[in-house]
Amino acid sequence: MPKNNPRRWMIASIIITIISIFMVFFGFVLNDFNFFWMILVGLLLGITFGIMIFVFYKQARLLDNLFKDVDQLAHWTFDQSEQQQKVETEFNERKSYNKILIGIMTFFFVLIGGAFLIFGFDDTDEALFFAIIMGSVLLLLFVVAFTAPIISYRRMKAAVPEVYVSPYSAWVMGEYSQWAAPMTRLTGVNLQHLGDGAVVIEVHFEIYQRTGPQEHVCRIPVPNGKEAEGNEVARQIAAVNGVAFTIAAEETNQTD
To answer: How many CB atoms lie within 10 A of CB 126?
Structure first.
């Protein structure tokens, strides 16, 4: 059975929470202004990782149920050649998506940053400092956009070549995605037929953050010869969650 990484993070969160409780306790016991920071840091860590305990507990429980055939829609295994093909396809798709995303972000960075540089500064040094900050942020985004697919590629290539799918989450060769969670909304399910004959289930969902909803896509590869089962699994995910189901090759849109 694959490793349940959320359980590891839950245990780590419990340990950090216990450490933070001791920090608060000793901060009060020492009763010295110089150790007041221990109370503040302990409270911050305790509250943060105390919340994370419950978050990771739910993820670990859902993943356990997924591995133990509770609410499981599919469990697919791939041979080495299939795994390599699926990993390569996923890598190319993510790389292409990130190129488009970083292109859009660069356009807005240049547009907004240029407007500020032209109309927002009278002092040359301040304008230069602003340009350096904007350029550094954009450079960081470039690094993340081009390294994330590589990291994901290596993780999936080294993982157990298996896929577990439920109506609420999926474990895809070492990567776990959950779309039935607080502040998360499923928006659609698509059965994608790629040019090389591969079939992929795309689960589109949004995670609400401070800056607004962030779009995410969980791409679930379908083994060769399991296309009909993949179609049914995608339909069930859409039906259970009450969202649109689409088949890209047929250019149809159906809601179950």
So the answer is: 12
